[in-house]
Amino acid sequence: MKALDFAILVPGHGDIQHDAAYADLLIEAFELVAVQIKPLIAEGLDEEAAVARLDFSSVEPRFTEGDEFLAGRFDAWFKRPIGRAAYRVESGDSPEVE
After folding, report:
1. Distance between CA 1 and CA 40 in Å, rounded?
2. Cβ-based neighbours of 91, under 8 Å, separated by 6 or more
3. Best exposed site among 18, 30, 51, 64 by fewest CB in 10 Å?
4. Among 65, 95, 63, 96, which Cα is nearest to 79's?
5. What is the pLDDT of residue 93?
6. What's CA 73's distance to the chain center, in Å?
7. Whole-model pTM?
8. What are phi and psi of 35, to 5 degrees?
9. What is the DSSP letter of 9?
10. Nearest to residue 54, comparing CAs of 68, 70, 39?
11. DSSP helix/strand/coil, 17
C-alpha cells in the first residue's frame, strides 16, 4: 500500500488520511501480533488462549483514541480476527477466520 506513494488514503472507517501514518500503524500492529504469537504457540496455548494473551496496549490507543465504542469494535473487528489469523498461519492451519 505504501509503495503506491498515495496522496490521499480513504480507509474503510475514520478520517481521510493525507500521509502514511495510518498505514504505518497497521504495519506496526501486524508486526506486533507476528512477534507475540510465536512464543504463545511454543508454550502450547490453543488459539483462544493465545489470542487472549496478545498485548495490543502499544497500538490500541492510537486506533481507538480512548473511545469505548471504538475499543469494542477494535476488539471484535481487529484484535480477535488478526490474532486468530496469525495463530493459524504460524501453526500451519488455514488463516481463514469466520
Report:
1. 29
2. 41, 47
3. 18
4. 63
5. 79
6. 12
7. 0.84
8. -70, -40
9. B
10. 39
11. strand
